[in-house]
Design goal:
By secondary structure, this protein is an alpha+beta fold. The protein is built from 9 helices and 13 strands. It has one domain. Helix 2 crosses helix 3, helix 3 packs antiparallel against helix 6 and helix 4 crosses helix 5. The longest helix is centred in the N-terminal third of the chain and has 18 residues. The protein is globular, with a radius of gyration of 19 Å.
Length: 309
């Protein structure tokens, strides 16, 4: 049997990371300690052989069940540039000062473009280091830190089918908002807001908030109740609101914040170097989802029984 050759697999696809380059052609990587690194985008968001399944007991040993599932993400990567270009071409209007729901500007979207967007966002969430840690967290909770080879195999086995199942389940359903920040740059991280963290199957109510460029982020969700149209809308935010969304990234990130030219102030949440998550409902992303056109106000009936954030 042929042996799989070593590959560089990107959890932050180069077709996306290249949009974060500064005037020198590089991207800034900020660590929880405040240390900073600067390099070409292709150098960041890389996991060597991260999408390989290798079941041999010894290094270099091949088996009939070994697999490279990097092609699972290739279609999403091929479509990602056109998705970003399309979202950037939408109309945005400054509606600050108006009620939250009226700040969203409805847009027309075909099934094809909406589906490509969902596929690309899902691939970004599934590949993230935060999701990789979820894939092995239960085993390590029960057994302690696993040997690297066994750990990587377990992550890959759990990760392989998440993307395909999620894209099929979500289809072209749900709501999305393209968010433009003209006055403050977004940051990206090795964790960001999403709930694709179950190994038993895709969530019935997915939620993803992903910065795609320093000026553009996308919020996608399938709420429990909503009107089909408008399926897509745009939202223009001010610098303070962008700061809040960047703080959300810092909550979910663990070892990496990426930015173009506006260095963020490191928060206590990111300094803790953990993939943290919102637990209680009613946080800022929840409020944004329930302000989208066609989504009813959030039901607060059971908030009393929710765990604290």
């Amino acid at each position: 049997m042929s042996k799989m050759k070593s590959e560089r697999h990107h959890w932050w696809p180069q077709c996306v990371s290249e949009r974060w380059t500064d005037t020198t052609g590089g991207v800034h990587w900020l660590l929880p300690t405040g240390e900073e690194r600067h390099a070409r985008p292709a150098s960041f968001g890389v996991i060597g052989n991260g999408h390989f399944i290798k079941l041999g007991r010894q290094p270099g040993q091949s088996t009939s069940w070994d697999q490279n599932f990097e092609p699972v993400f290739q279609q999403a990567d091929d479509r990602f540039p056109a998705v970003i270009d399309w979202l950037e071409s939408l109309a945005f209007e400054p509606r600050m000062g108006q009620p939250k729901r009226e700040r969203y500007l409805p847009q027309i979207s075909s099934d094809k473009l909406f589906g490509h967007m969902v596929e690309s966002l899902t691939s970004l969430a599934v590949r993230s280091p935060m999701t990789r840690e979820t894939c092995v967290s239960l085993a390590e909770h029960l057994r302690g830190r696993l040997p690297e080879r066994e750990r990587n195999s377990l992550i890959a086995l759990n990760l392989r089918d998440i993307h395909t199942r999620a894209v099929k389940a979500f289809g072209v359903s749900g709501k999305a908002a393209a968010i433009l920040s003209p006055d403050r740059e977004f940051v990206f991280g090795d964790g960001f807001f999403h709930n694709l963290n179950s190994l038993t199957g895709p969530p019935s109510q997915p939620r993803i908030l992903a910065p795609l460029t320093p000026r553009l982020a996308v919020l996608y969700a399938i709420p429990m109740r909503y009107r089909d149209e408008p399926r897509l809308s745009t939202l223009l935010i001010d610098a303070g609101e962008a700061d809040v969304l960047n703080q959300v990234v810092q909550i979910y990130a663990r070892q990496a914040l990426f930015y173009r030219s506006e260095r963020p102030r490191v928060t206590d949440e990111f300094r803790a170097s953990q993939h943290r998550r919102f637990i209680a409902p009613g946080h800022v992303v929840d409020e944004m989802i329930h302000a989208m056109p066609g989504v009813p106000d959030r039901d607060t009936t059971f908030d009393l029984f929710s765990s604290p954030a």
